[in-house]
């Protein structure tokens, strides 16, 4: 899609249509910014980023098929110069760490003000880093690397190797309910919602 050479061409990916429509209305009021494509999942975002080579990619952190951090890594894997801004519903430290490690320039929480969001878009489009206050506070409080017990690390290590809870319980000599309890704590500390996500985050953070 052709646009003015001074216009920042934006690809926006979010699985909620109402969120995409809201951002489009906001962008439409801004000079020099234009959403040229939308995606409703991470895989579609990766495909469109490669096809259109937009000036900025805005990714929701939580999306089906492929989350924002994974989509960012895939986009940057083929285009290291890509500029990416991540949107998240909450400033979860582990998620932020994964995104920053992937090469994401900026991250903002979804309930930030419209002024903050536009500032984040313009800043990251220039190739500069931007973190909303909530996320900056998370980093300042040194919560980027969660603390896991030796047992939790052991369990997540086995999860990453494909063992189910019953098999893990048998291998380490505790009950299946004990395994679930340790995983629940690990989920909370990592900001994960599944066994696979928890193991993946622990690996990316070099905790296991």
Task: Characterize the structure shown.
The protein is an alpha/beta fold and 208 residues long. It has 2 domains: 8-140, Response regulator (Rossmann fold), CATH 3.40.50; 150-204, Orthogonal Bundle (Arc Repressor Mutant, subunit A), CATH 1.10.10.10. It has helices at 17-28, 42-52, 68-78, 93-102, 114-125, 133-140, 150-160, 165-172, 176-190, 195-204; strands at residues 8-13, 33-39, 56-60, 84-88, 106-109, 130-131. It has a 6-stranded parallel β-sheet, with helices on both faces. Strand 5 (106-109), helix 5 (114-125) and strand 6 (130-131) form a beta-alpha-beta unit. The longest helix is centred in the last third of the chain and has 15 residues, at 176-190.
What are the defining features of this structure?
208 residues, Arc Repressor Mutant, subunit A, Rossmann fold, 6 strands, alpha/beta
> What is the average of the pLDDT values?
87
Structural class: alpha/beta
Given as residue ranges, the uncertain stretches (5+ residues, pLDDT < 50) are: none
| Series of H and E elements | EHEHEHEHEHEHHHHH
Look at the structure and give the CATH class of the largest domain: Alpha Beta
The Rg value, from CA coordinates, equals 19 Å
Tell me the major beta sheet.
6 strands, parallel
Using DSSP, what is the number of strands? 6
Brief description of this entry?
By secondary structure, the chain is an alpha/beta fold.
Write the layout of secondary structure elements.
Blueprint: E1 8-13, H1 17-28, E2 33-39, H2 42-52, E3 56-60, H3 68-78, E4 84-88, H4 93-102, E5 106-109, H5 114-125, E6 130-131, H6 133-140, H7 150-160, H8 165-172, H9 176-190, H10 195-204
Parallel strand pairs: 1-2, 1-3, 3-4, 4-5, 5-6
Helix pairs in contact: 2-3, 3-4, 7-9, 7-10, 8-9, 9-10
